[in-house]
Amino acid sequence: MTASSRPLEGKRILVTGGTGSLGKVLVRRLLAGELGAPAEVVVFSRDEAKQHYMRLAYQRLRVATDEVIYRGGQERLQFLIGDIRDPRAVSRALRGIDVVFSAAALKQVPTCEYHPYEAVLTNIEGAQNLVRAIHEQRWPVELLVGISTDKAVKPVNVMGMTKALQERIVQAANMFIPGTRCVSVRYGNVLASRGSVIPLFHEQLRAGGPVTITHREMTRFFLTLDAAVDTVFAAVTGARPGETYVPRVPAARMVDVVEALAGAREVQVQFTGIRPGEKVHEVLISEEEVARTHDRGAYYAVASILPEVHRGDVPACPPLAGEYSSAESLMSPPEVRAFLERHGLTLEQAQAGGAEEELLR
Q1: Of the candidates 252, 338, 248, which has an alpha carbon nearest to the alpha carbon of residue 299?
Q2: Closest to 183 measured CA to CA, from 223, 237, 228
């Protein structure tokens, strides 16, 4: 591995929301040194129980008293209790940090619909707190990566609206913290992440049905947690200031997902109606963004809407003719089944491997 392919070698890294589904996989792969061995990885979150169990996992302990906290200061993986909403806690967390991955979020659509201002405080104010602290305290942070979602494109729900604004905060930050490269990643549904529909389908199938789907034509993009982290790492190595990295990922009809999970079982599907804030199809790149979208191999890179940030970097021939929607390029039912099998997500594989138990710990 060359020096240029080891951008995180010797870096001190902060992961906000590091005890979440994505955060745990990201931390594991950071510590594995895929982009270079970091000097330290700091998990910043407000849930002491999740931090405790994550600490035990990395120290290969099943149970322990809080004595592990006192010895934990000697570990390469560090934990810091704090809230992304608290500017003072955020500023303290950034001391001595070189790279920030901002994964802290209020991400469940119904929760955000019923508690919209809570979503504003976490998803918008949290991002602004990071940028403000870097600017005001002059912390020498080299890279800030914001984690976004397909729901931020043409948003119809609170979660998407707040994530769309988070993306714009990260883009604009390049203008007044020019020493920090600020980029985002945007992707669709992460299979079997906390809050994912796959564990729900598994549970409903075990009970003999019915399996609930909100709409007959519902489609979604799908990728695994590791593919989500691949996107984050691609942005680390390739994203220019203000760009949003988007993976090229498959999409599927939810009825085909249920059919693939059910296999030979006879199962009733019940259509319950679209939930508050839910879309029938998701979009990863809008029509407006196509004109400033670049082809980066396995990824698309959407340049900032601000000309001062993208500096006229517009592709001569955009790689997309129209919006990048989950309604297009759908996997066939056999392809859906093969995709789920390849990633160990069929009901049989989940029961045999304990994937859901690991997820819900």
Answers
A1: 248
A2: 237
Distance, C-alpha 140 to centroid of its chain: 25
Under 8 Å between Cβ of 111 and 276: no
The pLDDT of 121-147, averaged and rounded, is 98
Nearest to 244 by CA among 306, 190, 301: 301
> 107 an active-site residue?
no
192-206 as b/e: b if 16+ CB within 10 A = bbeebbbbebbebbe
How is domain 9-360 classified at the CATH fold level?
Rossmann fold (3.40.50)
Q: Comparing 60-64, 242-246, 355-359, which segment has the lowest mean pLDDT?
A: 355-359
User: Alpha carbon 232 to chain centroid distance?
Assistant: 8
In this structure, what token pair is assigned to residue 223? 């990728």
Spatial separation of the C-alpha atoms in residues 233 and 276, rounded to whole Å: 33
Tokens of 233: 């790492």
Contact criterion met (CB below 8 Å) for 287 and 323? yes
Contact 126/84 with Cβ under 8 angstroms? yes
**Spatial distance between the Cα atoms of 328 and 323, rounded to a whole number of angstroms:** 9
CB 258 within 8 A of CB 321: no
125 DSSP assignment: I
Q: Which two tokens stand for residue 243?
A: 């760009």
Bridge-based pairing state of the strands 324-325 and 211-213: unpaired
Confidence of residue 357 (pLDDT cuts 50, 70, 90): very low
Percentages helix, strand, coil for the chain (3-state, rounded to 5) are 45, 20, 40
Distance CA 123, CA 113 (A): 13
Give 146's strand partners: 102, 184
Write out the E strands in 200-285.
Answer: 211-213, 219-223, 244-247, 251-253, 269-271, 283-285
Catalytic residue among 11, 24, 151, 279: 151
CA distances from 140 to 3, 13, 44, 144, 194 (A): 21, 12, 18, 11, 33
Please state which of the ranges 52-56, 128-132, 150-154, 300-304 shows the lowest mean pLDDT: 52-56
- 345/340 Cα distance (integer angstroms): 5
Residue 185 phi/psi, 5-degree rounding, is -125, 145
